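Lecture notes, continued. The same structure-token format from the folding unit now serves as the input rather than the output. Read the line below as a description of shape only.
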């Protein structure tokens, strides 16, 4: 041990050691000087350009270099081929016009009907006044020379496209919309497809920018696992109560406004089975409502930059339904879970506040530790210098004695 220490101190005292140390310190100095020079001049402002998408949304992109240009390579020819193929599936629909101008005869007839209605209203009001009653005043719409087509596929497609915040050259988005329309059309009985699309699916399609075909099918599969009833949308038949179409469209809405991963869909399918078998929930609406609550979980406001995915949402569901620490029954599972998810969010917020406080304390501790390191390093260097000077003094004294 003594020999090792002697070798260490011998290495410290050698002139070669200090030569290399000085060289290393010089390189650090040069590196610092270079880095200072690189940051000496002011940076230039990036080139600013507003894209069509930014102008339409009224919000600039967070990434200043993003141009919103369509780089998928989908051409107009590919889109046009897909569009024409879809129009052939609803041949009787209006694909060109959104409105038409009435003929003179039609307009004269509309004006005649309007005048007759106005006269009837005036006679009715005069009679009510004569018997001491309050007349009913309501405005009869004045005839328009232009008649709008309520089920125009051109207007319908334009309205859906407007919800995607995209421009006319983004043919990939247009093809995506057509594929979703085809999917919904495949669920119908093929009678009055244009009417079905406008009446039932317009809202879903407008809001389904971030909802893919695969996610739509996953939602329908989850819905089917509970209702056990295949859906067939129709204009001529009434919706059956056990089809639960209202709950399905609620699922669509949640899926369009939430980030539901494949793992979460698997968890939801497992939860549906658990509710029916373990919890013995027989009411289909209750099961679908609980699944909707679980699907709509969104704790993104509580996540840190490093927390990606849906780990917190899945943890909330697992903690309530599978950890056997929360008591719930078939008749109160919905209210209990609603209360649980609210408290879970509050606790996440409290945990984030505590984490922030700990981070601040650790930051202050790091500053203190650096101060101790600086002082330690300073006194270490001072001690080494003293040892070296003592060594030199001893060597000089030895040489003087020998001479």
């Amino acid at each position: 041990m003594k020999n090792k220490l002697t070798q260490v101190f011998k290495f410290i005292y050698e002139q070669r050691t200090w030569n290399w140390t000085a060289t290393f310190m010089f390189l650090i100095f040069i590196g610092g000087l270079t880095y200072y020079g690189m940051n000496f001049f002011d940076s230039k402002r990036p080139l600013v350009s507003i894209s069509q998408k930014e102008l339409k949304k009224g919000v600039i992109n967070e990434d200043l270099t993003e141009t919103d240009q369509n780089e998928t390579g989908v051409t107009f020819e590919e889109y046009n081929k897909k569009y024409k193929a879809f129009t052939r599936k609803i041949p009787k629909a209006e694909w060109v016009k959104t409105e038409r101008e009435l003929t003179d005869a039609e307009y004269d007839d509309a004006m005649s009907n309007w005048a007759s209605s106005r006269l009837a209203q005036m006679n009715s009001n005069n009679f009510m006044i004569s018997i001491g009653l309050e007349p009913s005043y309501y405005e009869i719409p004045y005839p328009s020379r232009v008649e709008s087509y309520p089920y125009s596929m051109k207007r319908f497609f334009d309205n859906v496209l407007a919800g995607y915040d995209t421009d006319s050259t983004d043919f990939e988005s247009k093809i995506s919309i057509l594929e979703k329309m085809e999917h919904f059309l495949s669920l119908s009985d093929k009678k009055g497809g244009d009417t079905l699309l406008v009446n039932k699916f317009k809202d879903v399609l407008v809001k389904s920018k971030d909802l893919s075909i695969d996610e739509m099918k996953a939602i329908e599969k989850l819905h089917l696992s509970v209702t056990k009833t295949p859906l067939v949308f129709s204009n001529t038949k009434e919706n059956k109560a056990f089809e639960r179409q209202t709950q399905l469209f609620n699922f669509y809405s949640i899926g369009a406004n939430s980030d539901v991963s494949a793992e979460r869909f698997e968890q939801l399918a497992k939860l549906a089975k658990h509710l029916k078998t373990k919890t013995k929930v027989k009411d289909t609406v209750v099961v679908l409502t609980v699944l909707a609550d679980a699907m709509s979980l969104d704790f993104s406001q509580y996540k840190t930059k490093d927390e990606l995915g849906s780990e917190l949402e899945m943890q909330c569901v697992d903690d309530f339904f599978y950890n056997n620490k929360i008591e719930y029954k078939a008749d109160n599972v919905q209210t209990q879970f609603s209360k649980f998810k609210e408290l879970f969010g509050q606790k996440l917020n409290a945990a984030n506040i505590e984490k922030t406080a700990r981070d601040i304390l650790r930051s202050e501790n790091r500053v203190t530790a650096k101060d101790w390191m600086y002082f330690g390093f300073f006194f270490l260097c001072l001690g080494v210098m003293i040892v070296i000077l003592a060594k030199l003094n001893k060597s000089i004294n030895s040489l003087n004695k020998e001479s």
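Point for the exam: The chain has a mean pLDDT of 80.
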